[in-house]
Amino acid sequence: MKIKFNSKYLMSAVVAAASGMAMANADVEKNIADSKNWAMQAGDMYNQRHSSLSQINAGNVGKMQVAWTFSTGVLRGHEGSPLVIGDTMYIHSAFPNKVFAVDLATQKIKWKYEPKQDPAVIPQMCCDTVNRGVAYAEGKVFLQQADSNLVAIDAKTGKEVWKTKNGDPKLGAVNTNAPHVFKDKVITGIAGGEWGVRGFLAAYDIKTGKQVWKGYNVGPDAEMLMDPDKTMTWTDGAMKPVGKDSSLKTWKGDQWKIGGATTWGWYSYDKALNAVFYGSGNPSTWNPSQRPGDNKWSMSIWSRDVDTGKVNWVYQMTPFDEWDFDGINEMILADIKVKGKDTKALVHFDRNGFAYTMDRTTGALLVAEKFDPKVNWATHVDMKTGRPQVVAKYSTAQNGPDKNTKGVCPAALGSKDQQPASFDPKTGLFHVPTNHVCMDYEPFKVEYTAGQPYVGATLAMFPAPGSHGGMGNFITWDAGTGKIVQSKPEKFSVWSGAMTTAGGISCYGTLEGYLKCVDSKDITKELYKFKTPSGIIGNVFTYEFKGKQYIGVYSGIGGWAGIGLAAGLEKDADGLGAVGGYKELAQYTELGGSLTIFALPGQ
Amino acid sequence: MNMDMMKKLLALAVFAMAGGMVIISPLAGAADWPPPLKEPLYKVVDGVQVDPDTMQGFRVWRQAACDRCHGPEQQGLVGPSLLESLKTLTYQEFAVTIRDGRLEKGMQSFGTSEQVMNNIAKLYAYLKGRSDGAIKRAKVQELESAESK
């Protein structure tokens, strides 16, 4: 076993060394360094979503106007954002995952790529047929299609360069995540936790599309690319080796084979550590009684070597999940002061309502605090064991199957879902779009059938009781101390990625369809607001073209927030008062994918 | 009821799907599929207590996670309201839709789910009871066995 493991990753190291590394890194780095571009989904490899452009600033953003708009021709939810490289914008859509290359000078479509995909994948995509956008490197655009095909498209011609299959959609293994280019590899994950898909992260060679490594999140050590002696985890207040069979020991029987822990979020990369960081999702099923144990390493933060996939360290946030608190949200890398000490940190706002600050080099747990005061399922995270202290009343496992556990905060969609936060280096604060929603959760026994849903709980969601009645907040967070600095209430979940700029503004979208820009020093001060054609679940981005700065965002309601939440709340028997608020979403918005680009008036 | 026949036909359907073929609906032509409905279709007491078969229909509804698209109270979500749909869909149309799906619209095929295919009449009874308004909420309980017999 061990010999096989070692030789396996020796092999991938050789493959990596032979395939001319550092080129892609150089190209992507060059594109990122030029702040006129929006070269990656988060603008950079650290997932900071911050731009150094400042033409549009706190003083003039109020005068911003719409410069141009673009319809993708697709109705369903639009997440992610376009990329801008030089004079071209790369725009993507929800299923069928069209990609448009648009000439910024004329707004003319240079080419359009529309894959043919089996419509059978549509119903297999949990929570709407979203796609979180493309990646760009070395003259190629990378698209991670819904049907799991990863495609490299020639950025000049729109022609397919290579295509590789990343999963089996017949078993529910589909994709919604954006591919990420780090070094000479495209890193991608998989979705399908509600179909019993076993999660992994995989790396493909950007030139050939050949798989370089694939590391599972659950199962035998060798298949996770985990070294029992070298892979570290937070144990009794210090970093210690995970030991042999760290995952297998925490599952009953073969449940891990259909155990979930998928990877549909946003990944980041630290060149100095040569490490990729990401989160793993919920264990399958949603009925905890069917999978006793910690279910490692679902619900975890991961650091892997980008060349070999070998696991440097891993930390499980929610052992034995009982609420569907996927750990897939973005990992933001930032060099900040943590409890007064300069730290190369990783900051993560989890679905479970806790924000984690880790030492990204070692994996040590530094801070774990609630970023919504209403979070009630755990009192706190024990900093020695790293385990959340679960409140019995809200334990869906202790209450058992066919019992409705009421009033759990947050709801399954988390205090924050995938909508990524931004780090503002000027203030040192994180700007976080959040949900303010609670739930009733009733697990029940399910049987596994390959290619059929494998869920095992019904739930009802409602605005956090005893609060402002809305279901979202836009907050600023001090990750060094674990405290909310400011909180701006929103009527609906803020399901749009935030962006901060050197111009002192912080922008995000709302489910009603408003693009809002606030003062990054005082986020309660709304400086700009504009109603786009549909609800916003996309991420705000910015770029400069011919001396002028632009800000853009997709609108196109959908996703779990837009459809699932809004309609799921039309339950008349809630008795919690604020249900009317959700029904109101229908008064603001309808479906429709489009892009709105803003700029200051004048030439 | 002819369960053996049912299983054979189901196996045929599974085979057809595994081969990735267009389903020529071997079942639709079969005289005994979908299986006949019971008389009366369902029994309800106090709007929430139902006979064992209808209870089984509810369990299948949950197992198949229909609520993810049709809403926790069947009121419609990404998918249409079944409270409305079952007012117009015939039992035959209902069964075929579940077996084959409506892929373009996002409705999957449940043809490979034994749970669903073996209980299609019971699932119909439960959902029809909801659509008729006789069953007052999605979550139901089984009638005391003495009463149900």
Task: Provide a compact summary of the structure.
Chain A has about 600 residues and is mostly beta strands. In chain A, about 10% of the residues lie in helices and about 35% in strands. In chain A, strand 36 and strand 37 form a beta hairpin.
Q: Could you characterize the architecture of this molecule?
A:
Chain A is built from six helices and 40 strands. Chain A is globular. Chain A is 8% helix and 36% strand. Chain B has a domain at 43-142: Cytochrome c-like domain (Cytochrome Bc1 Complex, Chain D, domain 2, Orthogonal Bundle), CATH 1.10.760. Helix content of chain B is 47%, strand content 4%. With 149 residues, chain B is mostly helical. Chain B contains eight helices and three strands. Chain B has a three-stranded mixed β-sheet.
Percent in strands of chain B: under 5%
H/E series of chain B: HEEHHHHHHEH
Structural class of chain A, please? mainly beta
CATH architecture level-2 label of chain A: 8 Propeller
Weakly predicted, low-confidence segments of chain B: 1-29
Summarize the topology.
The complex is a heterodimer of chains A (603) and B (149).
Chain A: H1 2-18, H2 23-33, E1 50-51, E2 65-71, E3 83-85, E4 88-92, E5 99-103, E6 108-113, E7 135-137, E8 140-144, E9 149-154, E10 160-165, E11 180-182, E12 185-188, E13 200-205, E14 211-216, H3 221-224, E15 232-235, E16 238-241, E17 268-270, E18 275-279, E19 300-305, E20 311-316, E21 332-338, E22 341-349, E23 354-359, E24 365-370, E25 378-381, E26 388-390, H4 396-399, E27 405-408, E28 422-424, E29 429-435, E30 437-443, E31 457-463, E32 472-478, E33 483-490, E34 499-501, E35 505-509, E36 514-519, E37 522-531, E38 541-545, E39 548-555, H5 559-568, H6 579-583, E40 594-599
Parallel strand pairs in A: 1-34
Antiparallel strand pairs in A: 2-40, 3-4, 4-5, 5-6, 7-8, 8-9, 9-10, 11-12, 12-13, 13-14, 15-16, 17-18, 18-19, 19-20, 21-22, 22-23, 23-24, 25-26, 27-30, 28-29, 29-32, 30-31, 32-33, 34-35, 35-36, 36-37, 38-39, 39-40
Chain B: H1 3-18, E1 44-45, E2 49-50, H2 52-63, H3 67-70, H4 82-88, H5 91-100, H6 114-117, H7 120-132, E3 141-142, H8 145-148
Parallel strand pairs in B: 2-3
Antiparallel strand pairs in B: 1-2
Helix pairs in contact in B: 2-7, 4-7
